[in-house]
Q: What sequence folds into this?
């Protein structure tokens, strides 16, 4: 079976019963019920086809381990763990189709699903699942990433570098895509030209380093014209010292505090405009390339935020 589903394993972590009922950590919140859910996409094929450093298939397990012991926030609600879609070998397309089906199914039950990759090929599976559940909705895509991931599908097929070109192809007229954190050196001029031609909103890493608020206006724009937001966070947006465990580490990168500001802004703008975020994903975590579990911990901060806010 090239693509299978591995059910959620039992979560383990630290407990401090002597501190009373409020000494909760994230692993205590995992439940069969709840309005939010987590789903893993354990896949290596997208990164291999994109000639990146491998390890992304180990992302979901490492991220859950890093998440388990983080303190739960005040008034935290339970969330469900839906296990992993596991792709063996090169069966990327079937993996994405299976992921899409799981996403569609989960959206019927949960108000927000957080998918943990996998490389950025996760996005094509996720988006298909979202669009199939909300066929009439205006979907705004916000990608926090050093890369556009807008390359065209070539001889080697789809990869972690092509998902947003594939998404556009599904419906070119309604494609609404905002990229925050784009590094000039990590995208060829062909991609910058394509992004312009396709009306992609772009805020560079330089702009965000100079001012954490540099993306605020663009965020408000896309949120105000969308029915719902699909938020995708490529952890390689962060500097290599913060996120060494990725396929393509960033020499410059956008600092963590700034990326956290951006996520806060997206969440608060969505609330102000009554625009839901039914689906988010966190991708490109590559545990074999990590140092001291730092990248897993960084990815876990965003996962906690999206599950709990
Ligand atoms: Mn990416």
A:
């Amino acid at each position: 079976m090239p693509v299978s589903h591995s059910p959620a394993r039992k979560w383990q972590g630290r407990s401090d019963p002597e501190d009373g009922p409020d000494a909760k950590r994230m692993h205590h919140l995992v439940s069969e019920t709840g309005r939010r859910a987590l789903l893993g996409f354990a896949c290596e094929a997208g990164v291999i086809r994109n000639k990146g450093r491998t390890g992304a298939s180990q992302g979901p397990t490492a991220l859950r381990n890093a998440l388990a012991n983080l303190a739960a926030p005040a008034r935290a609600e339970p969330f469900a763990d839906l296990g992993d879609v596991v792709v063996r070998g090169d069966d990327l397309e079937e993996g994405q189709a299976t992921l899409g089906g799981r996403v569609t199914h989960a959206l019927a039950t949960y108000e927000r699903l957080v998918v943990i990759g996998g490389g950025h090929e996760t996005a094509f599976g996720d988006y298909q699942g979202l669009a199939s559940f909300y066929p009439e909705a205006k979907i705004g895509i916000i990608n926090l990433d050093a890369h556009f991931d807008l390359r065209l599908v070539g001889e080697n097929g789809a990869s972690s570098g092509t998902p947003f070109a594939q998404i556009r192809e599904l419906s070119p007229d309604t494609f609404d895509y905002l990229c925050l954190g784009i590094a000039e050196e990590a995208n060829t001029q062909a991609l910058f030209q394509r992004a312009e031609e396709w009306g992609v909103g772009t805020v560079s890493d330089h702009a965000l380093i100079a001012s954490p608020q540099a993306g605020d206006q663009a965020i408000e724009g896309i949120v105000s014209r969308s029915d719902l937001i699909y938020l995708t966070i490529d952890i390689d947006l962060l500097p290599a010292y913060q996120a060494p465990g990725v396929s393509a580490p960033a020499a410059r990168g956008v600092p963590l505090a700034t990326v956290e500001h951006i996520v806060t802004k997206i969440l608060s703008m969505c609330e102000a405009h009554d625009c839901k975020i039914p689906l988010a994903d966190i991708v490109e975590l590559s545990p074999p390339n990590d140092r001291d579990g730092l990248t897993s911990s960084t990815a876990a901060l965003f996962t906690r935020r999206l599950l709990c806010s």
User: Anything to note?
Assistant: The two ends are 37 Å apart (CA to CA).
